[in-house]
Design goal:
The protein has 161 residues and is of the alpha+beta class. The protein contains six helices and five strands; from the N terminus they run βαβαααβαββα. The longest helix has 15 residues. The relative contact order is 0.16.
């Protein structure tokens, strides 16, 4: 699971990485499936499930190189964050079904307290592991003075969900 701010960071710091989207979605999910059978049938079944679930904007790797390009986007996020500057990082676990609520409620409070916050969230949707990181655009040099308050908000929401 990759948020738009992650994609924006990648575009800013690694423009040579090809993103499959014409416009960045609010969220995207990188999903890899494999089996010992017919991959075309597996892709067809996945497309049917996604369409039936309301997902109309899916990109399917057509070959191994394209699949590697998709994964490269995910793998370069930490490096893009380092280039961007100092952030407060969290590696938290949220019950999978509660991730949308956590993302909405925690972000709302953080933005209310820190209007210049840029939240970079990505993680492992299947097991609920979320990398939830925050940049303060106007206070980058001073970010650590806000670390305790930011951590308190993030951990309060992660425990109350």
């Amino acid at each position: 699971m990759i948020s738009r701010p992650c994609l924006d960071l990648l575009q800013r710091h690694f423009p040579q990485l090809q993103q499959p989207f014409s416009s960045s979605p609010a969220w995207c999910v990188l999903l890899e499936l494999s089996d010992g059978g017919n991959s075309e049938q597996l892709i067809s079944q996945l497309a049917e499930i996604l369409f039936a679930s309301g997902f109309s904007n899916a990109y399917v790797a057509q070959n191994q190189r394209q699949a590697q390009d998709f994964w490269r986007l995910r793998e370069r996020i930490p490096e893009a964050q380092r280039i961007e500057g100092v952030s407060i990082k969290h590696d938290i676990s949220i019950p999978v079904g509660d991730i949308p609520r956590f993302l909405t409620e925690c972000q709302n409070e953080l933005i209310q307290q820190y209007p210049d916050a840029n939240i970079v969230a990505f993680g492992h949707l299947g097991d609920g592991n979320l990398h939830y990181n925050l940049f303060l655009n106007e206070k980058t040099a001073l970010i650590y003075q806000f670390e305790l308050a930011i951590n308190t908000i993030v951990y309060r929401f992660s425990r109350s969900i």
